[in-house]
Design brief:
alpha+beta; elongated; 309 residues; six-stranded mixed sheet; 3 domains
Length: 309
């Protein structure tokens, strides 16, 4: 980028286009001043979020307050004791004169016949961070920027949920710190919280996988019972459903809705066809029917009382 008079004098008359070197330098400086990518460093103190966005191409990200909003909520309620409709605190990237303010929210009239307007209030606090992989600059309230380096083995990143600390060895393990964390905890302590949360997530995932495995095994056993009953020629009746623990009213209602006769017997495949995804309860009834069928085959006769309900 040309900046000095000497640089413009070396261009020659053709490139100066009839201007003197002083005039060409003045035009150049004016264009550079209008260029948004040319950021003066004093703007980083006055408007840090806007200046960093212009200079590096991405803006600051808001950081949730966490427990850091308690002090401001108490101040706001002490300042305006007559106000009642308080909402939760909000964060902003914009510079606020005192670092925080009370925002009034107009919800309109209560109804078309009511003259009164419903107002609610919330505390708005400046809490934002500019993110790079190795370091972040954190602005909270009217304090100066805090420089927070990522601990060894971790890096800072951002996603749809905001600022996060990520473990290099396991990128799926991350933690979204709050303003309270950044103000009161050291980076290594935040990383320790990340590892604790990651351990809890792994334990929860292990329990979930075990439950899914048990559910699959249970489903396989149920389907095996149904196939075995179908192969051995067992049939299902109303008495089997009652013996399996189902109530009479619910069984009759289900049978009526699917066109079953309470006095007839049906194959397991016919009953399973109308299970509506609840094969577990149907498999329990078929298991009862299979035990009755095997008992009858062993003794060589059927007891009619076991088929009546």
């Amino acid at each position: 980028m040309l900046r000095t008079i000497t640089d413009f004098r070396r261009l020659g008359k053709r490139k100066l286009n009839g201007r003197t070197p002083e005039e060409a330098k003045k035009v150049h400086d004016e264009r550079a001043r209008r260029n948004k990518k040319v950021v003066q460093w004093h703007d980083l103190y006055k408007k840090p979020c806007e200046a960093l966005k212009l200079r590096y191409g991405h803006e600051c990200v808001t950081v949730p307050l966490g427990n850091a909003d308690l002090e401001f909520n108490h101040k706001a309620r002490d300042m305006y004791p007559q106000r009642k409709n308080w909402e939760g605190s909000r964060v902003t990237r914009q510079s606020v004169p005192n670092g925080w303010r009370v925002r009034e929210i107009n919800h309109g009239r209560y109804s078309s016949r009511c003259r009164y307007t419903r107002w609610s209030y919330c505390v708005e606090v400046r809490s934002c961070a500019w993110v790079r992989s190795e370091v972040i600059y954190f602005w909270f309230s009217n304090e100066k920027a805090r420089k927070v380096k990522a601990p060894k083995g971790y890096y800072w990143d951002r996603d749809i949920n905001g600022l996060k600390l990520v473990c290099k060895a396991s990128p799926k393990d991350d933690y979204h710190p709050t303003a309270w964390d950044l103000l009161n905890l050291k980076p290594r302590e935040i990383a320790r919280v990340l590892q604790e949360r990651a351990t809890d997530r792994r334990a929860a995932r292990a329990i979930q996988r075990q439950q899914e495995k048990e559910a699959r095994e249970k489903q396989q056993k149920e389907m095996e019972t149904i196939r075995r009953a179908e192969k051995e020629g067992a049939t299902v009746c109303l008495a089997d459903s009652l013996l399996a623990g189902n109530c009479l009213a619910g069984t009759l209602d289900w049978a009526t809705r699917h066109g079953f006769d309470r006095a007839n017997h049906y194959t397991p495949s016919e009953v399973l066809k109308h299970a509506n995804g609840d094969a577990s309860r149907v498999a329990l009834v078929i298991a009862v029917a299979l035990r009755r069928h095997r008992k009858e085959m062993d003794q060589g006769y059927a007891e009619l009382a076991e088929h009546r309900a």
